[in-house]
What does this fold into?
Amino acid sequence: MTDLENLDQIRLLDSGDFLDLILKFPAQLQEALKNKFELRKPSTAISSIVLSGVGGSAIGAEFVRSRLIYSCPIPITVLRHYRLPQFVNSSTLVIACSYSGDTEETLAAVDEAVRKKAKLVTVTSGGCLARMAEEKGFDCVRIPSGYPPRAAMGFSIISILSILEKFGITSSTKLEAEESISLLERLAGDEYGVSIPETKNPAKQLARLIQGKYPIIYASTDYMEAVALRWREQIEENAKTLAGHYLFPEMTHNEIVGWHEPKHLLNQFAAIFLLDPSHDHPRIKHRFNYSKTVIQKTGASVVDLTARGNSPLARMFSLAYLSDFVSFYLAMLNDVDPTPIQVIDTLKKELIKQ
It folds into this structure.
C-alpha cells in the first residue's frame, strides 16, 4: 500500500504522472476558454441537440447536458451508441465528441448524421474524425492531444458550451468558468493536494474510507447528475475499483428497497451523497435524509459531500474535482497505476479483428 504522505512512492507508482494532470485541470479550463474557432452558420433553425460520444469523451457532454437542464430552450440528448435517434434531421445539431478521433461508435454516428443532413460539429484532437470533417466539409473544433480522454474533460465541456453559445442557443458561461478556475485552484492548493496531510485532507480521508468497499454515488437528477457519473467513472478507471451511481428521486422508488440483502455484504458498501443545497428540490432533501437513515442501519458507511461555489458550473466542478483526487489516492492505496486502462485497450484490439 502506497503511503499517501510519501511523494516519492506516489511518483514511482504514478508512471503516467496522472497527479500532474489533475493539478493542472484549472489551467486546462483556462486554456479551453482561450480557444478561438469559427463555425458555419446553420442553414435552418436548430430544433434539437444530440451530443454523441462514449467513455471519457462523453463525460463532457453529460456535464453540459446537466448544466443546461433548466436553461436550454430546445431538447438536448447525450447519445452513447452507434446509432442516432429517428428524430435527427437537418434541423438537429449533432456535436460529436471523440478525443482520439477514432472512436468507432462516434464515427458510426457521424456517418449517420451526414446521411441525415444534420448540422454537424466535431470536438476532437485529431484522428479519423478530424479527417472526415475536412473531407466532408463539416466543422471541427480541435483540442490539444496527449491526454487520457478522461483527463481532457475541461476541454470538451468548454468547447461544447462555446459551440452552443456561438449558435445563439445558450448564453455565455465564461463567468461561471472563471469562478470555477479560482475555486478549483484553491481546493487543490489548500485542501486536496498531495502535500496536505491526511489529517487535514478530505480527499485522502475519503479514499481511505472507501478502500476495500463498494462505493455507490447518489445525487439528484439535476445539476449533479453528471457529477455522480463522473465519480463512478473516475473510481473505476483510476482506482480500478468497481463502483455504482444512482439518482434521486428515482432511487427512492426502487433501489432503496434493495438495501436489505445480502446482509453479510452491506457493511462493505459506502454510500456517498452529493448535495447541492442551492438547487436540490426541498422534497429531494427529505428523500436524501430518509434514505441515509435506511442505509446507515445496514452498517454501510454514509458520507455527505456538499457542493461549493455560487454558479451551477462552479458547484458541479467543485465536487467533480474532488472525485479526481479521491480516485487518485484510492489508486495509490490499491497499489495500481491510475493511467493505464489495459482491459479497454485489449478490447479495442479484439474488436479490430472482428
Strands lie at 48-52, 76-79, 92-97, 119-124, 139-142, 214-220, 244-248, 269-275, 301-306. The CA atoms of residues 215 and 342 lie 22 Å apart. The longest helix spans residues 312-333. The mean pLDDT is 95.
